[in-house]
Amino acid sequence: MLALTPTARAEGKRRPSGRGKRPARRPARWRPFVAALGTSLKWGLRIVPVVAVVGGVGWFFASGTARDWSAVAVDRALWLTADAGLRVEEVLVEGRGETRRDEVLAALGVGRGEPILAFDPWEARAELAKIPWIERVEVERRLPDTIFVRLYERRALALWQRDGRMVVIDDDGHVLTDRPQDLSRFHTLPLVVGAGAEREARALVIALREQPALAERVAAGIWVGARRWDLRLDNGVTVRLPETGVVPALARLAAAQTRSPFLDRDVVAVDLRQTDRLIVQLGPAAAERMRPPPPANRRS
């Protein structure tokens, strides 16, 4: 028996030929990348539909399509309520004196037969408050078919002239109207003139009401130097009032006129700015009459 030496055993083992060779395994360093790629693809296939849905919904709202569809749906629903009897059939307005009817209807913005539930009282109240004559307003929906409006109007106090423009004002100096037809209706109101006169007119009018005989003769109150009034009487006489104490000053003037109607004489102005005296400026003719005669020439 022949024993094989180590060398012979090694030679007896032959390497297989290239045919039928098994593929070599990938290096271990690629395995984490391949696993991560597979996981990403798996989650990506799940997330893509969600992103598509969310994006579509976002576009639906951002493009205004949802708003338009919603508005159409609400409008149709409101008209269904109108068909059921909840529609505007009557508009009741109380307290309207100077406010024009067309102004009220335009501010309400509603027509007969329209859905009453579509009418917004808060918006209508805000629009009505823009009308100059309206100081305060109440607006209600009275189901099924009536809109109720209660107006609280401002009161005209005086005419105000500034820079050649005439307007009607209220107690707070708020401009009510400058329409010529309104100015002609309020021509009997006191007239105040000058920048800032609208804010001070109320105090002057109240003071004059205490002396009605004198007030009837006042053609205009002129605001002077943003601090006091001059009164222009119907005969052209100017009465200069003090900065303060207008009421007692007018009382002194009325009492002096009662004692002696000097305002009807040749007088140019009366100054009441001194509390202890009344200064009268005479006209040229009266001043000439008051002038003492020249001394007579004595013969030597």
The CATH homologous superfamily of the largest domain corresponds to Cell division protein FtsQ/DivIB
| Order of strands, widest sheet | 6-5-4-7-8-9-10-11-12
The CATH level-2 architecture of the largest domain is identified as 3-Layer(aba) Sandwich
Structural class: alpha/beta
How many domains is the backbone divided into? 3
The H-and-E topology, N to C, reads as HHHEHHEEEEEHEHHEEEHEEH
List keywords for this structure.
300 residues; alpha/beta; Ubiquitin-like (UB roll); Rossmann fold; 3 domains; 9-stranded mixed β-sheet; 3-stranded mixed β-sheet; 12 strands; 39% helix; 22% strand; disordered N terminus
Please describe what this structure looks like:
With 300 residues, the chain is an alpha/beta fold. The chain folds into 3 domains: 47-80, no CATH class; 85-153, membrane protein fhac (Ubiquitin-like (UB roll), Roll), CATH 3.10.20; 156-290, 3-Layer(aba) Sandwich (Rossmann fold), CATH 3.40.50. The protein has 10 helices and 12 strands. The protein has helices spanning 6-12, 31-62, 65-83, 101-108, 121-128, 180-185, 197-209, 212-215, 246-259, 284-290, and strands spanning 90-94, 134-142, 146-153, 156-162, 165-170, 175-177, 191-193, 218-224, 228-233, 238-240, 267-271, 279-282. The strands form 2 sheets. The chain has a 9-stranded mixed β-sheet. The protein has a 3-stranded mixed β-sheet with strand order 1-3-2. The protein is rod-shaped.
